[in-house]
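Backbone-to-sequence.
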């Protein structure tokens, strides 16, 4: 009894500590609605991690797990730099892992999952489903496989399957990967505030600067599409503070700065982004064109065209990007061919919108309206989708519907596109 009495103060301290941790720890009851605190990380050294993993493989070249880890690192490098060249490196690492023997004679499961993530990165979403289902059959409790399936089904336009895979992931391993995907589904439903809360929770539990940068970039994208360029710029800057090489955040920051009238900063950030990745040259060119620098815009468009030819020559064309570019800056009939082919591969809201817009630019307005309506109704609060639908209704002579959609586009995000927003205002003024 005396021994129990002596232990009571200690037990009380332990219980008090547990209560305080529950209340005040990141994600705790009293801190769930607080914004993320200041960063405490050093800049993210993904290149150093890749180098360390390569050195380990020189000592242990037959380690399937380390080869799979190297593939994951290459995929992360592709995401943060928007440089598709890393996909080939990731493929090589995953394939090496798959060829190596494991204890049970089966392929190393993380390499199977990695191949699915790689397929998603290359927009081979049907292939991603095949890899994900192969992983599910072999190891149904490896939760990252459900991230592969969620992403693939979303892009294929199969939202019920995407939600089912995500629910399995949330039930088994609620965390950053599942929260960010749940936020994407909420955004597609037009539920911006729940999406924002999920992303804040993801930021709170980020385990390294790269994860934190990814979450902040998604918060920036959410703010941007919700018409808040100032909030978007803050989130992008937070991402870059954690990971200065995160190219999507650099381009996002440039986009937000242009909307806020900080043109010189926007041009500097765009120049930095496109020097590291060609993914944003069209966006940069459109801003230059809007500012009257047609020669500068043409140079950026030429870079895109050259990059697109290289992808096609390698057998991995980006038909969505090529179609969008041709619809706005090239041959609309070519755009329709690209996007019809892409529509056969995946029926996402982005492809529906792009195909509808290409058909409109090619003069086929009635056919365009069906795709534009589908994208606008299933794509959440998206100003670009609403604008495209308004333009198509205007071309069909439906003035009232056109004004409603154009006004809605500007109310969602008055900065959604330098040229598109100006055109929407001009049409409304004329009406």
């Amino acid at each position: 009894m005396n021994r129990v009495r002596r232990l009571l103060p200690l037990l009380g301290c332990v219980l008090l500590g547990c209560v305080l941790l529950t209340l005040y720890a990141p994600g705790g009851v009293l801190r769930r609605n607080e914004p993320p605190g200041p960063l405490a990380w050093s800049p993210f050294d993904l290149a150093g991690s890749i180098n360390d993993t390569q050195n380990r493989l020189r000592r242990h070249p037959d380690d399937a797990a380390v080869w799979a880890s190297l593939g994951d690192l290459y995929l992360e490098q592709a995401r943060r730099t928007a440089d598709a060249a890393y996909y080939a490196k990731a493929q090589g690492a995953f394939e090496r892992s798959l060829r190596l023997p494991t204890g049970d004679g089966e392929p190393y499961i993380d390499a199977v999952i990695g191949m699915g993530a790689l397929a998603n990165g290359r927009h081979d979403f049907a292939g991603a489903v095949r890899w994900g289902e192969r992983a599910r059959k072999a190891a149904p409790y490896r939760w990252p496989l459900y991230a592969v399936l969620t992403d693939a089904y979303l892009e294929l336009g199969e939202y019920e399957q995407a939600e089912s895979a995500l629910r399995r992931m949330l039930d088994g391993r609620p965390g950053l990967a599942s929260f960010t995907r749940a936020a994407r589904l909420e955004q597609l439903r037009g539920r911006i505030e729940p999406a924002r809360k999920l992303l804040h929770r993801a930021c709170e539990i980020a385990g390294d600067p790269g994860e934190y940068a990814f979450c902040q970039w998604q918060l920036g994208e959410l703010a941007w599409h919700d018409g808040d360029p100032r909030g978007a710029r803050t989130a992008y800057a937070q991402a870059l503070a954690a990971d200065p090489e995160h190219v999507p955040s650099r381009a996002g920051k440039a986009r937000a700065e242009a909307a806020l009238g900080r043109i010189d900063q926007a041009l500097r950030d765009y120049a930095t982004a496109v020097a590291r990745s060609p993914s944003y040259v069209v966006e940069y060119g459109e801003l230059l064109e809007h500012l009257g620098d047609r020669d500068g815009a043409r140079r950026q468009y030429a870079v895109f065209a050259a990059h697109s030819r290289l992808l096609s020559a390698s057998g991995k064309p980006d038909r969505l990007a090529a179609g969008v570019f041709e619809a706005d800056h090239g041959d609309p009939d070519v755009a329709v061919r690209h996007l019809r082919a892409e529509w056969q591969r995946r029926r996402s809201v982005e492809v529906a919108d792009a195909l509808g817009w290409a058909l409109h630019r090619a003069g086929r307005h009635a056919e365009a309206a069906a795709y534009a309506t589908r994208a606008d109704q299933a794509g959440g609060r998206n100003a670009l989708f609403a604008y495209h639908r308004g333009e198509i209704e205007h071309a069909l002579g439906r003035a009232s519907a056109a004004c409603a959609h154009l006004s809605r586009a500007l109310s969602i995000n008055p900065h959604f596109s330098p040229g598109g927003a100006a055109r929407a205002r001009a049409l409304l003024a004329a009406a």
